[in-house]
Amino acid sequence: MKILAIESSCDETAAAVVEDGRKVLSSAVNSQVEEHRKYGGVVPEIASRRHTENIVGIVDEALREAGCNLEDVDAVAVTAAPGLIGALLVGVNYAKGLALAAGKPLIPVHHIRGHIAANYLAHPDLKPPFLCLVASGGHSHIIEVKSYTEFSVIGKTRDDAAGEAFDKAARAMGYPYPGGVFVDKAAQKGDPAKYPLPHPKVEGSPYDFSFSGLKTAVINLIHNAAQKGQEVDTDSLCASFQKTVAEILTGRLMLAADTYGYRTIVVAGGVSANSGLRSMLENACQEQGYQLYMPPLNLCGDNAAMIGSQAYYEYLDGQIAGLSLNGTASMPIDQPLV
Ligand code: KG4
Ligand code: ZN
């Protein structure tokens, strides 16, 4: 079964054709990051406008690269939640139009379910159940993936997401948006033990995260040094910050795996591209004898291939939307979209 998938929940306009949930026939992504960079973050209104301008071309590109036209695909899938509402609506409405015009089923996909499914594209042997850490710009979750379409959240952030903390700390250090990747590069040249940083815990919730205090600690450290006329070793601050985030994420994930009895561990979302997190998880999982699956770097960030993968399993589960489908800005992962 070939699915044409569309993703427009944030600042990437993307389309892909995916076969049977596992094989990427094409994946086209148009990133707006350069344009948002000058504002220090995504400007929702600009994102919506660019999606509107780019969506026709990006869908055509995905179909062309896959060597098919709309008649050849068996269904149209789209990210319907969560995300920036104006941005989501561009993809949802375009997908509705295509599905109606071609007489194909319309499959709505939850963006975070899509991030998890990126791993199905890279790892043919991976099947639920497993325990998944999702760390992106908007989410930090520890999730039980009980089946392809059944999820249960064990822990989540109480304030900033991991990627958001990376981006805010990066900004304080003078890096452009989104700063996660710059922190990662600088960290490789620094001393991770130079600046001890707090490991904030959430009282009574051992699997929840709180990154806001860690981000503030970095900002305070920079301000205090400036007031005293002291130089900050930015590479080492990046290394210390990255190590702390990786320790927090890895620690809670390993605790959850132990308590809930999972031996298969999966990571997803933009922050899963982080080299420090990847190597810490590799070591921790090797030590425990857990099987670890991570997406390749090109599938960590937002793309439509991951949406096409998850859509296949949603389709098998009967998740077909009517033309009343709406975009939804916030939606828990465990709730069906239809
Ligand atoms: O999943 P994603 O592409 O978009 C959302 O759904 O949010 O994640 C984007 C986030 C940004 O915060 C970005 O800085 C972060 O992922 N990120 C990284 C790295 N690459 C991307 N954070 C740390 N290290 C990286 N190498
Ligand atoms: Zn995302």
TrEMBL record:
<keyword id="KW-0012">Acyltransferase</keyword>
<keyword id="KW-0408">Iron</keyword>
<comment type="similarity">
    <text>Belongs to the KAE1 / TsaD family.</text>
</comment>
<dbReference type="GO" id="GO:0005506">
    <property type="term" value="F:iron ion binding"/>
</dbReference>
<feature type="binding site">
    <location>
        <position position="302"/>
    </location>
    <ligand>
        <name>Fe cation</name>
    </ligand>
</feature>
<feature type="binding site">
    <location>
        <position position="111"/>
    </location>
    <ligand>
        <name>Fe cation</name>
    </ligand>
</feature>
<feature type="binding site">
    <location>
        <position position="167"/>
    </location>
    <ligand>
        <name>substrate</name>
    </ligand>
</feature>
<dbReference type="Pfam" id="PF00814">
    <property type="entry name" value="TsaD"/>
</dbReference>
<comment type="function">
    <text>Required for the formation of a threonylcarbamoyl group on adenosine at position 37 (t(6)A37) in tRNAs that read codons beginning with adenine. Is involved in the transfer of the threonylcarbamoyl moiety of threonylcarbamoyl-AMP (TC-AMP) to the N6 group of A37, together with TsaE and TsaB. TsaD likely plays a direct catalytic role in this reaction.</text>
</comment>
<dbReference type="InterPro" id="IPR043129">
    <property type="entry name" value="ATPase_NBD"/>
</dbReference>
<dbReference type="InterPro" id="IPR017861">
    <property type="entry name" value="KAE1/TsaD"/>
</dbReference>
<dbReference type="InterPro" id="IPR000905">
    <property type="entry name" value="Gcp-like_dom"/>
</dbReference>
<dbReference type="InterPro" id="IPR022450">
    <property type="entry name" value="TsaD"/>
</dbReference>
<keyword id="KW-0808">Transferase</keyword>
<keyword id="KW-0819">tRNA processing</keyword>
<dbReference type="GO" id="GO:0061711">
    <property type="term" value="F:tRNA N(6)-L-threonylcarbamoyladenine synthase activity"/>
</dbReference>
<keyword id="KW-0963">Cytoplasm</keyword>
<dbReference type="GO" id="GO:0002949">
    <property type="term" value="P:tRNA threonylcarbamoyladenosine modification"/>
</dbReference>
<feature type="binding site">
    <location>
        <position position="184"/>
    </location>
    <ligand>
        <name>substrate</name>
    </ligand>
</feature>
<feature type="domain" description="Gcp-like">
    <location>
        <begin position="23"/>
        <end position="308"/>
    </location>
</feature>
<dbReference type="GO" id="GO:0005737">
    <property type="term" value="C:cytoplasm"/>
</dbReference>
<feature type="binding site">
    <location>
        <position position="115"/>
    </location>
    <ligand>
        <name>Fe cation</name>
    </ligand>
</feature>
<feature type="binding site">
    <location>
        <position position="180"/>
    </location>
    <ligand>
        <name>substrate</name>
    </ligand>
</feature>
<keyword id="KW-0479">Metal-binding</keyword>
<protein>
    <recommendedName>
        <fullName>tRNA N6-adenosine threonylcarbamoyltransferase</fullName>
        <ecNumber>2.3.1.234</ecNumber>
    </recommendedName>
</protein>
<feature type="binding site">
    <location>
        <position position="274"/>
    </location>
    <ligand>
        <name>substrate</name>
    </ligand>
</feature>
<feature type="binding site">
    <location>
        <begin position="134"/>
        <end position="138"/>
    </location>
    <ligand>
        <name>substrate</name>
    </ligand>
</feature>
